[in-house]
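Deviations from the work plan: none for this task. Representative record:
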Amino acid sequence: MLYRENGQFKTSYAADQQIFPIAQDRWAILGILVFAFIGIPLLGDEYLMRAILIPFLILSLAALGVNILVGFCGQITLGAGAFMAVGAYAAYNFHIRIEGLPLLVSILLGGITSALVGIVFGIPSLRVRGLYLAVATLAAQFFTDWVFLRIPWFTNNASSGSVSVSNLQIMGWEIITPFDKYMFCLVWLTVFALLAKNMTRSAIGRQWMAIRDMDVAAEVIGIRPLFAKLSAFAVSSFFVGTAGALWGFIHLSSWEPAAFSVDRSFQLLFMVIIGGLGSIMGSFFGAAFIVTLPIALNQFLPAIGGLFGVTISTAGVSHAELIIFGSLIIFFLIKEPHGIARLWSTGKEKLRLWPFPH
Amino acid sequence: MAVSRAMDTFPRLLFHHSRVRGDKTAMREKDLGIWQSWSWSDVAEQVSALACGLAELGFRRGDNLAIIGDNRPRLYMTMAAVQCLGGVPVPLYQDAVAYEMLFVMQDAGIRFALVEDQEQVDKLLEIKAQLPLLEHVAYDDPRGMRHYNQPFIHDIEALLAIGRIHIRNHPDFLGDEIAKGAANDIGVMLYTSGTTGKPKGVCLTHNAFISAAKGGVEFDRLTADEDILSYLPMAWVGDHLFSFAQAMVTGFTINCPESGETVMTDMREIGPTYYFAPPRVFENLLTQVMIRMEDASAIKQKLFHYCMKVARRCGADVLDGKPVPVADRLLYLLGTLLIFGPLKNVLGMSRVRVAYTAGAAIGPDLFRFYRSIGINLKQLYGQTETCAYVCLQPDGEIKFDSVGKPAPGVEVRIADNGEILVKGPMLLKEYYKRPDATAEAINAEGYFMTGDAGLFDDEGHLKIIDRAKDVGKLANGAMYAPNYIENKLKFFQYIKEAVAFGDSREMVCAFINFDIGAVGNWAERRGIAYSGYTDLAAKAEVYGLIQECIEQVNTELLHEGALADSQIHRFLILHKELDPDDDELTRTRKVRRNFVAEKYAVLIDALYSGKSSQFIETAVKFEDGRQGKVAADLQIRDIKTFPVAGRADR
Amino acid sequence: MSREIGEVILDLKNVSLAFGGVKALTDISFDVREHEIRAIIGPNGAGKSSMLNVINGVYRPQQGEIILRGKHFSKMNPYKAARAGISRTFQNIALFKGMNVIDNMMTGRNLKIRSNLIQQALWWGPARREELEHRAKVEEVIDFLEIQHIRKTPVGRLPYGLQKRVDLGRALAMEPSILLLDEPMAGMNVEEKQDMCRFVLDINDQFGTTIVLIEHDMAVVMDISDRVVVLDYGRKIGDGLPDEVRANPEVISAYLGASH
Amino acid sequence: MGFFIETLIGGLMAGMLYSLVALGFVLIYKASGVFNFAQGAMLLFAALAMARFSAWIPEWLGIDSLWLANVIAFFIAGALMYLVAWLIERLVLRPLVNQEGATLLMATLGIAYVLEGLGTSIFGTAIYKIDVGMPKEPVLILEGIFEGGLLINKEDFVAALIAAVLVALLTLFFQKTVTGRALRAVADDHQAAQSIGIPLNHIWVIVWFVAGIVALVAGVIWGSKLGVQFSLATVALRGLPVVILGGLTSIPGAIIGGLIIGVGEKLSEVYLGPMIGGGIEIWFAYQLALVFLLFRPQGLFGEKIIDRV
């Protein structure tokens, strides 16, 4: 309906292959970015940033990573939390063990370490697929759970088992307030989302998708499954690892291995399923949905209960949260297996065809 | 190179553009997934190379070159190249089969042909034996041409290459050739379709097309920034005017679609600002719109129909800048946002500033639809012989049943027999090698006789009535145009066929076939039971319905000057539908007037003898081939006619 | 015809293949010459597809060797085969369902990609340049196969005949020297078959591509192929020019036996 | 040596329970192609129901007999599991028929969440005891052979016995009953089974119900050993390596896999644990399965996958 595409013709492949080939989309995304960078800092309060926006940004980054592996390359993983943990603890160790290492470098090294571990745990993917692989990735999860709980070296012999970081700064910019943290995560996510989009629209992305869609045919046209799968594991783990580092450093400041438990893995998986497998946009939708749902339920359930004269306890809310959460997952799988991103793109397609239905 | 600054031939115009807007896009073609573009200087360079390549092959001043193919930039460039050399491009219809091309190729004495692809080369090879004059064939698309070793078949690339070498060796050659050209040289030869007799080559000068193009450009204030989609056959005069002549005059951009299948998509991408299509294209688009809307949800359909109602009420006035009530204006704005804008977008017409249609009568509903959603659709009138340039509808003065006012520089006169005569710089120079036909078409005063009958209404708009030869006279000498009257009747949804009588008679009477679907529906809503067409045809209510329609036609005719006497006095509803199986209609569903008059002579007699009913029995063929008879007592009704004022004028 | 059939470029020697205990191919030898159209025919279950799968390494034969341009391979693998310029289409179209036509064909250019992952992530320099160059190449194939109107359609939404064409397009995008076609015309109507025949001949003619083709339609095979191998129950029962094969009594009986 | 055998037997006992969990996975996977992540939640749900009803029933009905209360509670819990199976088939499986394995896996994760939420909100979150009269005291056996004898936990022994009986019963059920044969037919080929008139939907309900009963039994055993609490849901995660090892489609595989994992866990905990730190049993099972996968991707008894092109 809002689309007026007449006259938006492409005279070069560069123009045809840009990320947002439709001018209206370009304007929309520009608007969103302007709002995120200028509008929100002006309007938002600290609670909003701390409780919603920062987790959303970081988990979006992690979901991007999971989506690269699950959505684009078709390798199911139930161990994403493990790679967040690896990223976080590796960054932590680089941070505290190497004097004066810039924060950015620490986080990136955390991501790289996670990528290496990801490659190791990706090796089974060369032999097994689907459900078997999903179980194999759980191995990574339980292994890292154990490592960071039981091997004191990784936690710098912290007696409580919890580690913490302080004095975060980048070239003199001290990241202390929620506003600082928000901006830092936003910049980071913007850059990495762009990188992810670029990968998925170039040769490597096509290799991943080819492996996902029809691995035998992919091999026949000269795609090496080894490289395609392991690169997906590496890139995915890198994204997830840096997200883990951000989660620990920026969001939590101090954390225990439980922050990256198997529940986190499931949560990330749900994000990409509900958001939309194989869609960059979907990762954001999924993260937004999963971050805001519990908060919304916490706000609304007691209120709704109140309407009917029922008091809903905090525990009750958390139980109801589980039920609603589970039902929503099933509902999505039945009604829209391709997630919110598909709803989005169908909606967009409808708007482009409006007033025609198809 | 030195080229005269006068811009009176197309080559001079081309080099003018390459000088003043060399970097601006002259042509685009959707190819290999994107819009490949040529700037004016690219075009000038390629045209030069092509011209020199042709010269190298032996193309001489005065030679004719056949151009056969879909709209392709290279084909347009070849036209210009041929003109540079003082030759004449002769575009042919690309979908014609080989033997259909034969006559034109022979008639025009074609020595050179530039064709699009293998398909066209094959056609020429098929008739090569009958074309002793044909020396060289060049093709644009090399696909499948690998094994064509004949020395007279050339790849256009090779032609360009030898042309470029020629330019290096003879840098002044082309400039000199262009300088030799004169405005009065033949610029292009277009063959008339030849519904009667063999096609005739219409020789049109540079001056004729440039005048016509300039007139149109000024009339619609076209600029160098227009985009036009070139998708109609290059052999058709309209395409030559819009895609070639006007582009050359203003320097705007022509856009060639990727293929026939992708025209709609390509149109959506380009979003032309200036658009031309024959009525059937507009009609198909509208049908598609309606069909696709039927699948929409109920709410959306409601919204659509509501908005269309608003548009019908005030859309045309908004477009014409006439005063519209504020409430309507707001509703229309909302409609634009919700329906009209998106609709134009999916039709590829968001950017259309001026759209024309011509070639056949366009139904008022159709015309109104496009105008009401804000597309400035207008009609024009012209022939191949007049560079498709006689009358244009000025912005803001749109009438559904006229073709507008005489275009700038054109003189239009109505002859005594109603025939439209035109004179102006855009007239043909002659029919190729047919002085007899030329003499027949242009009268002593230099008017071209269009063969159409028409009249000017009170505001000076030309209305086309009929082919001049079909126009008769009533007993009192007033003009009588049966087709015109019948078409008016058929615009009513209830009337399917109408046959009018009146030639040499004192009044006009008519047979009516109603539309069984529409009238059947109407009857059902009124609880009128009926068993079939014949039954329904005898109902007084149906007579009443048809009578209302005819009365309305009469009131309209009253205001149409010369046709005021053609008001219908009496009519009857035929007891059976006119049917091609009974030879009453042609297979294309045109009434066989004489056959019908003969077959139903008894009814005609009854109409003119003042009877109020008449029995008739008719043999019919049923769909399964059986023969049968239909008999009925037909009622005949008188209709109110209106006295004609100012009879003294005639 | 201007193309000239050259030397043997692909030679299979005594190939045997079995799945578990089931023999799919028994001691089969045949060769393929450069620029020729070589057909493999035979009744259902004759082992034709297995033969193609052996040539490009999807199946590993238990015995025999493959000699490709003088190089001996006891076992081929799909990646090596692709590198060596062998591409193929699939009997049951194996397109990448989640991608559109262009992207499917772009995967065919994969072996020619030189830029690395980081360059691609940054969409920078060589990566960007390559994307545009390969797109241009792919567009040529699209043009060649006359599928411009569907270039951005997800392949899952295409009708069968067009999917087959895209499958061929993906194989062509590799610019192969040997093209293996597994029943390219199966399930098509007459018109689609004619188009496909024309494409096969054009590919062979215009690019000089050697074509090894499995086809059921005998008329088509006899029309377009230079030499024919006939398989039955995993054995070779005939090999030669179309006319020779047609006259071969063993072939006739095999086909009669298969109710032809 | 005695200590080793003791550990071994302990492992076997624990392994038997893993087998029970794995059995639930295999049953459902075979019959409906679903990798049922909700097995743990079903176990928790069943155990919670059992624990709470066995406590509520004496209150409500005034029954003194623990045994009778337990039997009634068991049947109520069993009925509940039937209801659960029916609802799952109705609301989840039927709409998702013919979807990919991954989608179904996610759906079972959803089921798991719902069941956990439901279980805890109906039955509460405290730690509950199930007392089905399992003998708690350890016994010494084979004192003649090993020095000091072997110390066996009687409870483990009984549990293993129950598990073994259950497995035997299930095997009988599959081999001898009409329903069992129909189940096997469905497992072999969905479409063929449907075409000869086996009602797929009904079969699914039965399979999920059987899996529910298996979960109930396992829940009772684990519950009486450790108490019923939320963490029971994660027991299922321990069953996973078992199925991987044994093969997703093989009932004997589930049993043998369970035993291997049970023994492996215990041995590694006892012999490897001190070297590299405690609590390694979970990941050890997984790594064991993982390494195994590399050599035999289809598991011990799984069917070999052949790629057809």
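The mean pLDDT of chain C is 90.
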